[in-house]
Design goal:
Elements: H1 3-20, H2 45-63, H3 68-82, E1 85-92, H4 94-101, E2 115-126, E3 135-145, E4 154-161, E5 167-174, E6 182-190, E7 200-209, E8 212-223, E9 229-234
InterPro entries: Gly-zipper_YMGG (IPR027367)
Pfam families: Gly-zipper_YMGG
Organism: Sulfuritalea hydrogenivorans sk43H
Length: about 240
C-alpha cells in the first residue's frame, strides 16, 4: 500500500482507537471540553499516547497485510500504557570506581573484564507533569568494575505487576552511557491509568550484563485515591 493510500485507513483507524480509549479531550470541572487559544480542543496525555500508538499500529498492520483498524486499537492501548521516559549517564570515572573496589576481597576489579559490582534502585513519586498527573520515578545506580577492553552490553529491565501478580507493562532499555568501568545512573518515569488509584502494584527492575541477569530489585507501590504514590516496602 502506498503512503497516500495508507493515509485514509490510518485516519479512520485512529478515530476508532480514539473512541476505544474513551474521550481523549481534556475537560473542565463542569464537564465541558477545554480549548486552546486558537479554538482547537486540548488533547490529554492518554489520547496523545493513543494516537501515536494507533498510527504505528495501523502502519505495522497494513505493512503485514493485516487489518489497519485492529492494529490501531492495539497500538493505542500500548501507546497509553507506556507513557515512558528513560535516560542514562555516567557519574563517576572508571579510575575512581576501580580504586574503591581495589581492596575488596569479594569484588576486586577483574583484569581482563568489566562486570557489574553493585545495582540499587530508589522508587519515589515524581513531581506532577504539565497536566498535573502524578508519575513514578525510578533512579538506579550501577557500579561497573574491571580493566578489560571490551565494553559490556548492559540493559535495564522494568516490569509492573498488579495485585494479582499479572504483568501490566514491561520495558527493556539499553544503558547507553556504559563505556567500560565506572558508576552509572539511570532515571525513568511512567504513569499508570486512573484505574490504578487505590491499588497496590509490584515494580521490578533488573540489571542485565552481556545477557546475564546480575540483580533484580522489587518494590511494592501503592496509588492513593488522590493520586499520590507511596512506596510501601521491598517485595520478597
Amino acid at each position: 500500500m502506498s503512503p497516500r493510500n495508507l493515509q485514509r485507513p490510518i485516519a479512520a483507524a485512529v478515530a476508532i482507537a480514539f473512541l476505544a480509549t474513551s474521550t481523549g479531550c481534556a475537560t473542565n470541572p463542569d464537564g465541558s471540553f477545554k480549548k486552546n487559544e486558537d479554538g482547537t480542543f486540548v488533547i490529554d496525555d492518554k489520547a496523545k499516547g493513543a494516537l501515536i500508538g494507533a498510527a504505528a499500529g495501523c502502519a505495522l498492520a497494513s505493512a503485514t497485510g493485516s487489518d489497519c483498524a485492529k492494529g490501531a486499537v492495539i497500538g493505542a492501548v500500548a501507546g497509553f500504557l507506556i507513557g515512558w521516559y528513560f535516560e542514562s549517564k555516567k557519574i563517576a570515572s572508571a579510575q575512581q570506581v576501580n580504586k574503591e573496589y581495589a581492596s575488596s576481597k569479594t569484588s576486586a576489579p577483574p583484569r581482563k573484564d568489566v562486570v557489574p559490582a553493585s545495582f540499587s534502585t530508589q522508587v519515589k513519586e515524581a513531581p506532577p507533569d504539565a497536566s498535573g498527573q502524578k508519575e513514578i520515578q525510578l533512579t538506579s545506580n550501577t557500579d561497573m568494575i574491571g580493566y578489560g577492553d571490551k565494553v559490556p552490553q548492559v540493559q535495564q529491565k522494568y516490569a509492573i505487576y498488579d495485585e494479582n501478580n499479572k504483568l501490566v507493562e514491561e520495558k527493556t532499555e539499553k544503558v547507553a552511557a556504559v563505556d567500560g568501568a565506572g558508576r552509572y545512573q539511570t532515571n525513568s518515569k511512567f504513569k499508570l491509568p486512573a484505574s490504578a488509584k487505590g491499588k497496590t502494584y509490584t515494580v521490578k527492575t533488573a540489571l542485565v550484563s552481556n545477557n546475564k541477569t546480575y540483580k533484580e530489585n522489587s518494590y511494592k507501590v501503592a496509588f492513593a485515591d488522590d493520586g499520590r504514590v507511596m512506596v510501601l516496602a521491598m517485595a520478597n
